[in-house]
């Protein structure tokens, strides 16, 4: 048998070919054109070889496979754009053919006449699970490492290689829809309970069991290719289905406000497909897949949420020429709310960390946070007791600064107070080595100003975490005027090690994320003052695709923190820095009404004791004369909330605070959940076209104020027909720099 680049094939004495997928130089197997061609060749060879009785398909890596290489899909988009310019109809035909390739390959496996068994040893996502579904048998290892999912919806597409047809022919329709429209992961046990895998066995028995299935006479025919096959639950013409299918689009609309065409296409594929013979159903899926691939949502989501996120995670902004640092020890100074969590994520990445506070008790309190998190993880079975102990052993709480002598990096997370930070910077610099990098987690103080307290400003940088640190995937890395390449490289190496995605921004008040967030909240203040019913503001935000309404978000951030920041802006920048009506509203909320947000149980919302849910504070309606709901246009509210944020992002590009559009996009989605279907703030503008965006801004400025005026850069780009990704081409920049 021939040799392959990505696979090994070993046929045993029983005639069972063990196909092991192990791509060279990659940490995870993914589908590429070469991989598909090799699977095709393996299929042909095993069919032709009479000695082969069946095939076991597995992975040589710790995971099974992450699914399709989405960069392949991204290049399909470029192909489509080029071809469309020449001949639109032929371009769509080409896309249709490409969209069906994987599906047809899997169908050929399913109908090849010899039994195939997929042996799932670890994470099995997207196309890899669709391939497994086309095998006649599926065995999964009884291991935490096994996570099975069809997560395509999360990047704007859907399982288009047979997933929408095979899952609801194995599992009941409700579970199938739930799995595919949310993209959530299944454990091996759950997948078995749903009927998606046949057996779950101990990891060491995986291949043996898979082979045994073939030896036991596994029929090389899919259930739906058998005469008399019945869909589980009876298909779409049953009383249960009559309850499910009419409700499903409404539920989806409630969850996603109709913003995700890929999710709706799943419902259509399942409903239509279950009424058709299997091969016709696959064709229907291919047609919807072709349609979805042409949506702006799919294009933008794949670019930002997959390609750019991966590139930034792999250090796209890391300065070339600085060798990678193996971070051996980290110091965290300030063991409060943020410092305690930063210490935890550092230890969770296997790095020893000293956690310093003013006295031993305060430092111990910081470590107690790690102890609680570890106990929770162990309790939930996500961590063994030993793993938990190992993690905790890495955190050393102490008030003794001399323990910082051998750290590679210090993260400062003390009070947000210039004088306190100055004292800490001096105390730390008195003990650290010449090469140690100092990173401040400040959220509001410009890094350049803080670095004035440092003797080595080139080794001083901002590393801004978001709360809750354990969950938030983003970290903003802020360059002070004098920050050097070594500091940047070290900061990025650290962020990568703790598995967060970094964006690198230049110094400014609020950096990138908070500048955008405050625009969002400020627009809600304007709406409140205009008399828009508060519930309409919050609902419009959700309908626009934001995960949290602006008033709710302000409560989380703390209303008195907003007051503090607004006052600081006025003190530093003058009285025009904040609208007087906004200051009045917030002064009233904090000083008169003591409504400080979630933390004191009352803000824009009321927070009754659990299990009761929070609800908008009824008194909010009495602060300003209310407009009747019928006079408020929800579509305009949605636009105002998204446009004000996107405009701020555009300003940060114009001011060169953010220099790479990928960072504005990824930062806005990971930092504050900017409507993910748009692909982020700048993709939102590019997606509708800069010219359309500028016209929209002008209209909003006429009606709601000058803060909507498009900036000179936007006007120029509109006139030239440019896009952000064209004008600030991240790849062009890399090539130029190289
Ligand atoms: P916090 O009050 O919870 O913690 C500050 C800790 O610093 C306290 O434990 C305090 O005892 C300690 N401390 C004060 N002076 C010290 C000194 N001289 N030496 C050692 N320890 C000292 O505050 P926090 O919310 O964790 O914020 C810390 C920093 O992180 C601030 O700069 C803040 O702006 C920033 N930040 C906060 C958030 C957030 O959501 N809270 C988010 C991002 C960044």
TrEMBL record:
One of its GO terms (biological process) is fatty acid beta-oxidation. Coiled coil: none annotated. GO terms for molecular function: enoyl-CoA hydratase activity; long-chain (3S)-3-hydroxyacyl-CoA dehydrogenase (NAD+) activity; NAD+ binding. Residues 510-607 form the 3-hydroxyacyl-CoA dehydrogenase C-terminal domain. CDD domains: crotonase-like. This is 3-hydroxyacyl-CoA dehydrogenase. It comes from Pseudorhizobium pelagicum. In the central section; belongs to the 3-hydroxyacyl-CoA dehydrogenase family. Residues 329-508 form the 3-hydroxyacyl-CoA dehydrogenase NAD binding domain. Gene3D superfamilies: 1.10.1040.50, 2-enoyl-CoA Hydratase, Chain A, domain 1 (3.90.226.10), NAD(P)-binding Rossmann-like Domain (3.40.50.720). It catalyses: a (3S)-3-hydroxyacyl-CoA + NAD(+) = a 3-oxoacyl-CoA + NADH + H(+). It comes from the Bacteria. Keywords: Fatty acid metabolism, Lipid degradation, Lipid metabolism, Lyase, Multifunctional enzyme, NAD, Oxidoreductase. Pathway: Lipid metabolism; fatty acid beta-oxidation. InterPro entries: 3-OHacyl-CoA_DH_NAD-bd (IPR006176), 3HC_DH_C (IPR006108), 6-PGluconate_DH-like_C_sf (IPR008927), ClpP/crotonase-like_dom_sf (IPR029045), Enoyl-CoA_hydra/iso (IPR001753), FA_oxidation_alpha_subunit (IPR050136), NAD(P)-bd_dom_sf (IPR036291).
